[in-house]
């Protein structure tokens, strides 16, 4: 399904079904301490005064530069961390799963046992997750490595296993942090197709990605995070264009600054 068809499908769903709010984020902030010397620390805000809603069945994209606060925001939505300011309201009994490249598998345990533990942590019953193991193994394409220690896995293998667990866990809210590009071309296409099927099935997804192509194709709305603050939100195409324009301008300024420094250095050498 191409991007135009995806958008048309989502628009049709929106017309036929009023989407209820399942998550409300109110002025949240996350504060960190950065060491500046011996017993000296400085506070800085990784996120500050961020507010938005997530509606059932929508796919929300989050974009921004590295270090902008995107992954921190996903950890808040997954309830891995708590905000230092503001509050988040979840729909009662709502479940979620967070899929990130740094997913915390225990290296001494096999992929199979890590999949079981991950499923239990996501709220699945033991019978449910054990019943999914064959599908998880097949989707992850780990083969015999599924029963080998996760400490022997590459980053891509761990991400594939984490994606396979999350995509089969069937939680209310799927949180994905930069994993659609892992693996070879075949696995990337398969993971993107699995995402499309979740979206067509009215699954609620929050997607963090540096791939504007994936964001544009898969997302209904986009939030742009810059230096911990939300600086833009709304229609995917409009927010992506604004973000891309800001990136181009920043690159242009860096090039101009480098040229000025080179010119100044050349002038000093001639003196």
What can be said about this structure in brief?
The protein contains 8 helices and 9 strands. It has a 6-stranded mixed β-sheet with strand order 5-6-7-3-8-9, with helices on both faces. A 3-stranded antiparallel β-sheet has the order 2-1-4, with helices on one face. Helix 3 crosses helix 4.
Structural overview:
The chain is built from eight helices and nine strands. By secondary structure, it is of the alpha/beta class. Strand 6 (173-177), helix 6 and strand 7 form a beta-alpha-beta unit. Helix 3 (111-121) packs across helix 4 (126-140), helix 3 packs across helix 5 and helix 4 (126-140) crosses helix 5 (155-169). Mean pLDDT is 85; it is low at 12-17.
Name the poorly predicted regions: 12-17
The count of domains is 2
| Structural class estimated from helices and strands | alpha/beta
Q: SSE order, as H and E?
A: HEEEHEEHHHEHEHEEH
Sheet of most strands: 6 strands, mixed
Keywords:
271 residues; alpha/beta; Rossmann fold; 2 domains; 6-stranded mixed beta sheet; 9 strands
